[in-house]
Amino acid sequence: MTTATTPAPAVAAHPRVDLVLLGVALASVSLSAPLIAATAAPALAIAFWRNALAVGALSPVAWFTYRSRLRALTRREVGLTLGAGGLLALHFGLWLPSLSMTSVASSTALCTTTPIWTTLALRLRGHRPPALVWSGTLAACVGVLLLTGVDLSLSSRALAGDALALGGGIAAAGYVLLGAEVRRSVDTVPYTYLCYGTAAVGLLAASLVSGADLTSYDAETWVKLAVLTLAAQLLGHSLLNRVVASLGPSVTSTAILLETPGAALIAALWLGQQPPVLAYPALLVILAGLALVVRANRAN
Asked: How far is 265 from 249, CA to CA, in rounded Å?
């Protein structure tokens, strides 16, 4: 049992269990885009509520089960967690507005460059990712490009949207890297509780500054926000934060690319949107790239 003065033990590596949890997380976050598309609320407001509602849901567990661990967090752990929460808010705050400024294809392709920035950041920090990690990362990104296409416009508004989406991808890389570092010594619940709380505060500020409506919704919209919180946030992001400690940032960030074809397939089944012709080949390419990254990490 972890006491208030004893650091949380390192997370034991259970590759098969963690890969299953990763699959559940990816299926959950894949619901995000279709749910957002079907929810009649501003993008920033949706991002705020999914984090705020998650904090509310986690509060009883955090305060009654992990109170001593929350109090025992070091300054470094708190600082890194708050940084991760700020980057998560930045990711949402940059990417979601970009969807209305540039094409969905361009926004998705640029935002899902996360594993490239993750691998580059690891290299700058002195790590030397194996050649298989680079190959798998690039292959997975090619799979996303096959699915979304390349549709960069030269209009000033579209270029600004492209820049926002790219910034969202970079912010997501920082979020994954800081999360992996914090999760070496901090349990999932205390970390996600503080991280989501920080993101909610940042997104609330952004929503208020932009004048986004935060409350005037009908009952159906609130139900969709609750489902989004349960699926994409509590199951999706929280399980990603759970497995990143053992699978590592390279595997986790590369696996997140599967959200794109997953969302396309869910939208086809739920919203009746016909998936692109290349959806299935792209899925296979992304899976092949992910397999290379997993193999490289297991070999180290």
From this structure: 26
